[in-house]
Every structure is written in C-alpha cells, then in structure tokens.
C-alpha cells in the first residue's frame, strides 16, 4: 500500500530533493503513484527527478513489481494534483507548511478512517510505503512533538538538519507546543507538526495490526516515525521495517539504535548500484534519494523471491529508459 | 477496467435485480468493486444479492481473478456511496432518473476525461466492464436517442421490456428528443438518456482504441451499447465482446444479430452452472443476473488460460462461502 500526498513544508528552499524544482515537487506523489501502477506518468506532467537528475525511487519499486507481480493499492494521503492511478480515499487533504499553527486539520479524520480501512483489509500481509516531498521534516516535527529522539534522514546527499530543526522549532512555537507535549496523542502530533501521509500511514498501521494483518514498514525514517506514532497509540507488537543500505549507511542518522529503541526489526537490502554505471543508479551511490515509494520494501521482496539484484538493476534500466523515452535525459551530477 | 457507478433510474420499481431491495441497490457498485478488489466488502455494508438471493456476478469475476491473477483498475463512473476499492476519477457523478430532463450533466466531461485517460494507458490489452444497477434501461434510452435498434437484456428472469420502454419514452419527452435526434452525438445521447457509467465506458473505449490498446467489451447489452456509441463517435475497427451464455441465450434479445450489425465479434462462454447445484449458481441457471462486473470477460479469460470450468465453479463456491461467512445465507427461489 502506497500512501501518496503533499505538505507545503516541501516548498521551503533546500528541504527536499523530490522534484527538479519547487514548482514540480507538488506533482511528485501523483506521478510516483502512476509510475508504480502503470510504469509511466499518465496524467502527471513530469517524471520526478531530483534537481541533479536522480530519478524517483518509484522506478525501483516499479521494476520489482514487474519482476514479481506486486499488488499495489494507492491511498490518497492528501494529493494536491490529479493522479491517473486508482486511489482509496480516507479524507486526507494536502498539508500546509508545519510553520503554520494548524497545518494538517484532516489528520485526526484521516487517522481514524485509515485505521478503520486497515482493520477491514482481508490480506495476510501488507507493506506500507510513502511518497511525500518534505516528509522527513514533518517526521522530525512529529518526533519532537511526541518527545522522541529526533532521527531523520534526507533525500539530499547532505542532510539539511539545521534547516529542518529551525523549521520544526518555528512550527512548535506556532502550535504552542513544547517537545513531548503530544506524547500519547498521535493525532495531535500529526495535526500540528506532521503531514497527511504520515497520518494516513499511522492509521493504516494501527488498523492492520488490529486486524491481524502482518505489516512491514517499507521505507526509511518516515516509516520509523510511523512506528513511534503507533507506540504512542498503544501498539506493542514488534514491527518490521525494510529499508535500503542508503538509509542504513546514512551518517546523519543512527537507524539501528533508533529501531532498537522502538522494537523495530530492520531488514536492510543493498541493490549494489555501484556495480552498474547508469544514470538511474549513480546518484543513489552518490547519496541522493536513498529511499521512498517503498523502495527498500520492494528490494526486500525481490530478495525474498530469489531474484538476483543484477536482474533488479537490469529491470530498473528498462523502466528508466521507457520513462525517459522521448524526453530529454536528465544529466546527473555525480 | 471496471467502471462502477449509479443512476437513480434503478430506483424505479421492477427495473433492476441488482440489489436485495431498492434501498440497497445504491451500494451495489461500491460493494462489487470491493469484492473484485479484495474478495469481500470493505466499506460497503452489503453483499449484493438479487431480491431472490442471487449473488452478484462480482463473485465470478473475483473467482477468476484469484485463479489467473487479473490486474483490476476500478474507474469511478458516478458512485453514490463510498468504496474501499481504489478508484480512478474522471469527473463522473451519480446519474439521475432518465425521466428527468438532464439526468447526466457530467456525461460530456466524463466522456472526454475517460477518453484522455484511455488514450494514455500503456497496457497492450484491456477488458472493459460495468456495474450500474438500472444500466440496461439507460442503455435502451441511449440506443433510442441514437436511432439504433433497441436491444437490451435484463438482470431479471423476465425482462421488463414494456416498463423500460415506458420509462425511456417518458425520458425522451422530458428531453424533447425524438428517436435518432442524437445520432452521431454520443455525448448528447449519454447526457439526456444514459448513465455516467456508460459515458465513462464509451470514453475509455474510444481512448483505448485511439491509443492502440486492444480492447474487449466484457459484458452484455450495455457493453454492446458502448460499441454503438463508439460507432457514432467514428470508431470503425471491429470490436470484440465477451459475454455469457445467459445473455446470448436470452430470448428477449437477438444478441448475435445486433453484434453483426455493429461489427462486434462475439465470444460467448458457458460456465456450465447446471453441473453444480449451489446457491451461488442456481439462480443464474434460472435466468437471473446473467452478466455484469465483467463476468463474461472473466470467463473468457479463464477459458483462454486453459482453466477448466469445473475449477472456476469450485472457486466461485469458495468466494461465495467466504462472502457469506458470518452472514445469513440468502435463500434462492429457483
């Protein structure tokens, strides 16, 4: 299940690399949903790339979907632009800048509706994934509101942590919150300091656990934040998280310690992108993007299905070439 | 692709068997989409059955999906109740009673948006299906407005043709249309005498053909009406239609003659339900339901994949039992 949505926090200069420029970021989640579903954008006007040309991790998830036939359900976690992907509605609306006083007024409703939806899903196993530019900043905001250790990675090679902290401090002030004020109140933390995607994911996570569906968090520190939110909602079961080596090796975070603290079991999969010199992969090796759109979960599923990583890389090239077919190829700066 | 939506025409007494009573009909398309997607209702409060207890053809399509792994995309063709199935939006809204003057004001917009969406679908092959209670009456209205031969089947064992004709005559009068007045104007026929599902299907059909995707119409006389609409939109290529023996053997219509007239190639698949004495199938043998939710297309795909019909029937029983698990089993009157 891929939750796709937006927060205007992403428009702050230097926060996110999930779009070629700040005007295009708003299309990224809609395009990601289409790329995973159809293999290419249908209604979205862009193929999401970072400012340096690094393609969206949706390419990786789509490649694995083509290899092992994943069933994908996209949930609208506050999309701001139309998508041609089929979506489930839980009432989430685009999130405002966390520096506003009440940026995610739909968070409590989306949390409740997603929880109910998650509880009713009959599947035995679900991987939960996200696409929301600016999502690590809102994750930081939520962790601070909950009073948890702030552990967030970045889609940029240099994690702009000082900027994120500044944004979050401003948000806490605007919301009249001190760190820890929203402990045991995930809906408050999400509404005041989060984004609609994280609210939706947290609702799904809690509902799926309650409905006895095995859930794996497929992503990096945003999904780890969903685990923290679930703890504050009273969920005690061990939660698995499947991510990439790019997040696990990120020097700006200690993912393993944070996972241990939250009783989260880590699966880290290395796609060995350095073995293939290709514009679809080089920027990842240089530290960009790292995760997103369920990339780490998709790689773990491919691995579990016995697909060699060389085959995954080959398919990534195929998906990438099809995506860029007829478009000017972005020039990665490595 | 399953287009799911509503028309208030279905509320006219005696028009449709696609719900246990007229209050429940409005949930049928939302529930059908969920049954095909998940195997059971998620948000919809009912399992759609006819007044006599005949289960929705969604059971058959779901059974085939489980056997051969169909990819299903649900398009919102004017749903009046929430669905937990992921849906694509083309701007269709619930249709009013065709006896109103302008019952489907969203038809031209949905037709255009669905056409654009259909053109952008990268798949090689698509089966188009519908779920809309009352849809054969609106199909009759559209055929009359186009000036085509009126050929419509029914979900009831006795096709209430006199009632449908009366409803359609009233609708033509309310819209100040004589038969044939909407020739070569599918948007007018759909807006004044149709329903939002048929508008969406016609748009998809035209767009898919224009986008060089192979399309099969998966259904009965409503899908045949979509072929007629496509002819009036200038589509000349031969169109395949896959339906059930229940429609092909319906004495109230001459499906073969109508198909020939429209240059439609018929595939008729017999699930041989009389070989299995079971409440999921007996009512079909007695002439109820006949088609819908892509049943005929699903059966054709199962057949083409080499699945014996006995296996399809066995899986129908599994899906049916799971659906009725914990609910009072409807008592079919055969």
How would you characterize the overall build of this protein?
The structure is a homodimer of 334-residue chains. By secondary structure, the first copy, chain A, is α/β, with parallel strands linked by helices. Chain A has a single domain, classed as Rossmann fold. Helices cover 41% and strands 11% of the residues of chain A. Chain A has a seven-stranded parallel sheet with strand order 3-2-1-4-5-6-7, with helices on both faces. In chain A, helix 2 packs parallel to helix 12 and helix 4 packs parallel to helix 8. The longest helix of chain A is centred in the C-terminal third of the chain and has 16 residues. Chain A is globular. The C terminus of chain A is likely disordered. Chains A and B meet through strand 3 of A and strand 3 of B. Chains A, B: This is UPF0284 protein SAMN05216388_100517. Chains A, B: GO terms for molecular function: nicotinate-nucleotide-dimethylbenzimidazole phosphoribosyltransferase activity. Chains A, B: InterPro entries: Nict_dMeBzImd_PRibTrfase (IPR003200), Nict_dMeBzImd_PRibTrfase_arc (IPR002805), Nict_dMeBzImd_PRibTrfase_sf (IPR036087). Chains A, B: It comes from Halorientalis persicus.
Quick overview:
Two copies of one chain form a homodimer. Chain A is an alpha/beta fold.
Question: Keyphrases for this structure?
Answer:
homodimer, 334 residues, alpha/beta, Rossmann fold, 7 strands, 11% strand, globular, disordered C terminus
What's the helix and strand layout?
The structure is a homodimer of 334-residue chains.
Chain A: E1 2-4, H1 28-38, H2 58-68, E2 74-77, E3 87-92, H3 107-120, E4 125-131, H4 135-146, H5 161-174, H6 186-193, H7 196-210, E5 214-218, H8 221-232, E6 239-244, H9 245-248, H10 255-261, E7 264-269, H11 282-285, H12 295-304, H13 309-324
Parallel strand pairs in A: 1-2, 1-4, 2-3, 4-5, 5-6, 6-7
